[in-house]
From TrEMBL:
<dbReference type="GO" id="GO:0102559">
    <property type="term" value="F:peptide chain release factor N(5)-glutamine methyltransferase activity"/>
</dbReference>
<keyword id="KW-0808">Transferase</keyword>
<dbReference type="InterPro" id="IPR019874">
    <property type="entry name" value="RF_methyltr_PrmC"/>
</dbReference>
<feature type="binding site">
    <location>
        <begin position="125"/>
        <end position="129"/>
    </location>
    <ligand>
        <name>S-adenosyl-L-methionine</name>
    </ligand>
</feature>
<feature type="binding site">
    <location>
        <begin position="193"/>
        <end position="196"/>
    </location>
    <ligand>
        <name>substrate</name>
    </ligand>
</feature>
<dbReference type="InterPro" id="IPR025714">
    <property type="entry name" value="Methyltranfer_dom"/>
</dbReference>
<feature type="domain" description="Release factor glutamine methyltransferase N-terminal">
    <location>
        <begin position="11"/>
        <end position="79"/>
    </location>
</feature>
<dbReference type="InterPro" id="IPR029063">
    <property type="entry name" value="SAM-dependent_MTases_sf"/>
</dbReference>
<feature type="binding site">
    <location>
        <position position="148"/>
    </location>
    <ligand>
        <name>S-adenosyl-L-methionine</name>
    </ligand>
</feature>
<feature type="domain" description="Methyltransferase">
    <location>
        <begin position="119"/>
        <end position="257"/>
    </location>
</feature>
<comment type="similarity">
    <text>Belongs to the protein N5-glutamine methyltransferase family. PrmC subfamily.</text>
</comment>
<dbReference type="InterPro" id="IPR050320">
    <property type="entry name" value="N5-glutamine_MTase"/>
</dbReference>
<dbReference type="Pfam" id="PF13847">
    <property type="entry name" value="Methyltransf_31"/>
</dbReference>
<dbReference type="InterPro" id="IPR002052">
    <property type="entry name" value="DNA_methylase_N6_adenine_CS"/>
</dbReference>
<feature type="binding site">
    <location>
        <position position="193"/>
    </location>
    <ligand>
        <name>S-adenosyl-L-methionine</name>
    </ligand>
</feature>
<keyword id="KW-0489">Methyltransferase</keyword>
<dbReference type="GO" id="GO:0003676">
    <property type="term" value="F:nucleic acid binding"/>
</dbReference>
C-alpha cells in the first residue's frame, strides 16, 4: 500500500523527523512551515488534511523541514514574523522580533493613544523596523526616523515600511547610534531595543539563536559602556520633556536606570514584562 500524498501524512512525517532531531514544538513548526508554503492559515490547514500535495510542494516542504532540523528558525525559513498587529519580513540580517518587544510597542501605544498631534519618533537600532514601523502604522501622525549600523538591516526595514505603506513618514539613516544625526535634530520620543546580552552568556542562549541570528544585534562586550553611549544619545536628541523607552537585561536594569539618571534623564520607571521580569526603562529628558 502506497503512502497517502496528503497534508496530514506529510505533517505527521515531518513532526516525527523534527522530534528525532530534538526540535522543540516540532508539530507547531511543521504546521507553520507547510501553511506558509501553501498560503493557508493553520486553521485552514486543519480543514484540508486530505488535500494532496504536488511533487513540487512536497520537494519544497522537505527542503524547509531539513532547514528546520538544522535549527534554522521558522521565521527565517518562511521569511516573516508576526509582531503586534502586523507581519514583518525578516532574514538573517535582522533579529527576529520578540514578544517582549511587542510589549514595548503596546506600552507606548497605550501611553499615546489619546494624542493626535504630529510626533517625531526615533527608533534607534531599528533592525527589521518592528518598533518604529508598528507605531507608524498605529499612529498616522507619527513621523519616524529609523537608524541602524547595518545597511542590510536598513534594507529589511525599508521593505517592511513599503509593505506597511508607511514609508512616506519614515526616514532611514545608516548610523552607529547618533553619529550620523545632526545635533539640531530632536525627537519627542526615542525607543530602542539594543543588544544587551553579555558575551559571557552566549553559551546559555538557544542553539538556533546563536547559530542564525545576527550577533551584532544580540551580544555586547560591555553593557554599561554601551548604554552610556545610548543614554547620551537620548539626552542629546530629546526635546525638553521628551520621552525615551528602552528594552534591556533584567539582571542589570536597576544599575542601568541609575546610569540613565546621570545623563539629564529623569522620571525614570522600571516596568516588568508579562513574565514579571524587569525589562523596560522609561523616562524623559530633564533639560
Amino acid at each position: 500500500m502506497t503512502d497517502p500524498n496528503n497534508i496530514l501524512h506529510f505533517l505527521n512525517k515531518s513532526t516525527d523527523f523534527l522530534k528525532k532531531k530534538g526540535i522543540p514544538s516540532a508539530r507547531t513548526d511543521a504546521e507553520w512551515i507547510l501553511a506558509d508554503l501553501l498560503r493557508l492559515t493553520r486553521i485552514q490547514l486543519y480543514a484540508k488534511f486530505e488535500m494532496p500535495l504536488s511533487s513540487k510542494e512536497i520537494e519544497e516542504y522537505r527542503e524547509r523541514i531539513v532547514d528546520r532540523s538544522k535549527s534554522k528558525p521558522v521565521a527565517y525559513i518562511i521569511g516573516k514574523k508576526g509582531f503586534h498587529q502586523f507581519d514583518f519580513f525578516v532574514n538573517e540580517s535582522v533579529l527576529i522580533p520578540r514578544p517582549e518587544t511587542e510589549e514595548l510597542v503596546e506600552l507606548i501605544r497605550l501611553r499615546y493613544e489619546k494624542e493626535d498631534k504630529p510626533l517625531q519618533l526615533w527608533d534607534l537600532g531599528t533592525g527589521s523596523g518592528c518598533i518604529g514601523l508598528s507605531l507608524a502604522k498605529l499612529f498616522p501622525h507619527f513621523f519616524v526616523t529609523l537608524t541602524d549600523i547595518s545597511e542590510e538591516s536598513l534594507n529589511v526595514a525599508k521593505k517592511n515600511a513599503e509593505n506597511l505603506q508607511v514609508n512616506d513618514r519614515c526616514n532611514f539613516i545608516l548610523s552607529d547610534l547618533a553619529n550620523k544625526l545632526s545635533s539640531e535634530v530632536k525627537f519627542d520620543l526615542i525607543l530602542s531595543n539594543p543588544p544587551y546580552i553579555p558575551l559571557e552568556e552566549k553559551e546559555d542562549i538557544m542553539k538556533d539563536v546563536v547559530a542564525y541570528e545576527p550577533h551584532q544585534a544580540l551580544f555586547i562586550e560591555n553593557i554599561f559602556e554601551f548604554h552610556k553611549q545610548i543614554f547620551q544619545s537620548f539626552a542629546d536628541h530629546l526635546i525638553p520633556t521628551g520621552v525615551f523607552a528602552i528594552e534591556t537585561h533584567p539582571k542589570f536594569i536597576h544599575k542601568l536606570a541609575d546610569l540613565a539618571s546621570t545623563f539629564s534623564l529623569g522620571d525614570i520607571e522600571i516596568i516588568k514584562d508579562s513574565s514579571s521580569k524587569d525589562r523596560f526603562i522609561i523616562g524623559k529628558s530633564m533639560i
